[in-house]
Amino acid sequence: MLTALERQEIEHEFKLYPYKQAACIEALKIIQKHRRWVSDESLLDLSVLLEMSVEEIDGVATFYNLIYRKPVGRHVILLCDSVSCFIMGYESVLEYLISKLGIKYGETTPDDKFTLLPVPCLGTCDHAPSMMIGRDLHRDLTPQKIDEILTKYE
Question: 106 lies in which domain range?
Answer without folding.
Answer: 75-151
